DUF3813 domain-containing protein
Amino acid sequence: MENFFERAKQKVQGLTNKPSQDDTAATQDAIQSAYNDATAEEKQQLQDLQQKLDQ
């Protein structure tokens, strides 16, 4: 089974300063997928990743 949390982290880290809409959408999907099965600590980290994405 794929580790959705690690996938989401890698997606956010892989974004450039001006990501395309497709890149942003894929990253959002990865974060949402990871959030469903995340621990409380991972959920906090995912929220932090989401904030980075929103900036």
In short: The chain has a mean pLDDT of 81. The chain has one domain: 4-14+21-54. Residues 35 and 43 are 6 Å apart (CA to CA).
